[in-house]
Design a protein that fits this description.
The complex is a heterodimer. By secondary structure, chain A is α+β, with helices and mostly antiparallel strands. Chain A is built from five helices and 15 strands. Chain A is flat, with a radius of gyration of 23 Å. Classes of the chains: A alpha+beta, B mainly alpha. At the A-B interface, helix 1, helix 2, strand 6 and strand 13 of A face helix 2, helix 3, helix 7 and helix 10 of B.
Chain lengths: ~325, ~190
């Protein structure tokens, strides 16, 4: 009797985990000191993990956020500081950012997300915080989200850094709608945070949700198992420009870089392809917002085969 | 015209490691790329609790040793799996205990931590327990080679790099392991056990 089948059967019962979920479950992130299992458990649900880095759709990596409508201009010539009597100010108000204490937290409201990030650094510094905020152009639903929170040496800073739109779910760009970064009062370390800001016309996103997510350009469009022609029909109803990239699957099981809960694990590579080289009967793999009004369709002439199953019920093809 | 790199990364491992020297977040891409398969492999051998520790420890050690990584090696898989293999070796006894428990009870203890696998557990028995018995009886080095290929899906060359042995040795160990396992499984087929 051949040993490979029972070996495969044993292996197939172990799921291939999503890397983000795994990183969070085991409390791993770059530079984070190894913790014991016990202390790691306490971590679950805290800051998201490891990766602002590629490989996975950025939307899964994001937690909370802060940024403003950005376009609310306040005519303040110089920042105003309210001293606390011990050297640092208790609030800061400038044309780019306001920072004040509210309920045990520093709340920073960004008024101009396109300002030189040094301006934010100066503002935080004025209230005694070492926070470096770097706005990045992102697709609409990620505006205001923190896409990276990192302390010295790449570690996660202690305390909760969070954010959200104020009021909740308001529309960025409208008066009175702010995204605010919250930093615990008493935070002594250094932290670097990247946060999503609206992109300028033609500016390429550095992080994007799926184009079909609520609030993105192809909201509600069904992609699964649909052809380019079918998807284009929907796209044409919305004033959206399309670019393509070809998605290929390499049969190299050691480097899964795309995991889909239903379809399995894939090792994918991507290359740009001209629109006239794309067949209308090709399949659409994914749609990603590229810049305002431009969506990038990942397309493939044939269905992609997973290199590893994520389900627990068998190996590929079983 | 590639995708923005915050969304996806097509750089090779060595490039990511080099970039992670300046920005540790790049190491997260290496985790995303290699951790799931490594975790599955470790979980199959030692159960998911120990696998959690081994994967965390592997990437922790790798992160702190990344300055010494030979950037000429584009694929970091052998490096990461070697670290993990050394960690797994500390638990050989636990591993053998798990195989023996499976043989004794017909229930795969590794799957018990997966709540969604109750149905699987019931059907585990048949060929699996004989296989487990065979695995428990293998020499450590032979078992590593067999499981790195079968459960890790590594190539002979990758196994050679992970274990730091010649490819010829990988082949001979694999032959020996397979012969032994087949003998046990063959006995089952003949009804002899």
């Amino acid at each position: 009797m051949d040993e490979s089948e029972p070996l495969q059967k044993m292996r197939s019962q172990i799921p291939l985990r999503d890397p983000d979920e795994l990183a969070m479950a085991i409390g791993w992130q770059p530079g984070e000191p190894h913790k014991t299992r016990r202390s790691r458990r306490a971590w679950r649900g805290f800051l998201p993990s490891s990766s602002t880095v590629p490989v996975v759709p950025a939307r899964r990596l994001i937690i909370g956020a802060v940024v403003t409508a950005g376009l609310v201009t306040v005519a303040v010539v110089g920042p105003s500081l309210v001293p606390d009597g011990v050297g640092s100010a208790t609030s800061y108000a400038g044309s780019a950012i306001d920072i004040r204490q509210e309920g045990g937290q520093w709340v920073a409201r960004i008024k101009d997300p396109l300002a030189d990030h040094e301006r934010y650094t100066e503002a935080f510094s004025a209230v005694g915080l070492k926070v470096e905020l770097q706005p990045r152009p992102v697709s609409p639903t990620l505006v205001g989200d923190l896409v990276l929170t990192q302390g010295e040496d790449g570690t996660t800073p202690a305390g909760t850094f969070a954010g959200g739109r104020e009021p909740v779910n308001c529309k960025i760009g409208e008066e009175g709608c702010y995204l605010a970064v919250r930093v615990p009062v008493g935070f002594k370390g250094e932290v670097r945070a990247q946060l999503g800001r609206p992109a300028e016309p033609g500016e390429r996103y550095q992080a994007a949700a799926s184009a079909t997510d609520k609030g993105e350009v192809l909201e509600g469009v069904e992609l699964d198992d649909r052809t380019v022609a079918e998807v284009l029909e929907e796209v044409r109803k919305r004033d959206v420009q399309v670019v393509y990239q070809m998605v290929k699957s390499d049969p190299d099981p050691s480097t899964v870089n795309w995991i889909d809960g239903k379809k399995g694990g894939f090792h994918l590579s991507y290359e740009p392809i001209a629109s006239d080289a794309v067949g209308s009967d090709w399949l659409v793999w994914a749609a990603e917002p590229q810049s305002d009004g431009v969506v990038r369709l990942g397309v493939t002439p044939h269905p992609l085969e997973p290199v590893a199953p994520t389900s627990t019920d068998g190996t590929p093809g079983s | 015209m590639g995708p923005p790199d915050v969304i996806r990364d097509e750089r090779d491992d060595a490039t990511l490691i080099a970039q992670s020297l300046d920005d540790p977040q790049y190491f997260g891409a290496l985790f995303s790329r290699h951790a799931p398969s490594l975790h599955r492999y470790a979980a199959r051998r030692l159960g998911s609790d120990l696998a959690d520790d081994i994967v965390a420890e592997t990437f922790h050690l790798a992160f702190w040793k990344r300055e010494g990584y030979d950037l000429a090696r584009c694929d970091a898989l052998p490096w990461l799996w070697r670290i993990a293999t050394n960690l797994i070796r500390r638990h050989y006894r636990s591993e053998v205990r798990l195989y023996r428990a499976l043989v004794r009870t017909g229930v795969d203890p590794v799957l018990e931590s997966h709540a969604d696998m109750v149905a699987e557990r019931v059907s585990t028995a048949a060929g699996t327990s004989h296989l487990a018995a065979a695995l428990a009886g293998l020499r450590k080095g032979d078992r590593d080679v067999l499981l790195l290929t079968a459960w890790g899906e590594l190539s002979y060359q990758q196994v050679a790099d992970v274990l730091d042995i010649p490819v010829g040795t990988v082949r001979s160990r694999l032959n020996r392991a397979r012969t032994k396992v087949r003998k046990v499984l063959g006995g089952v087929a003949d009804g002899r056990e």
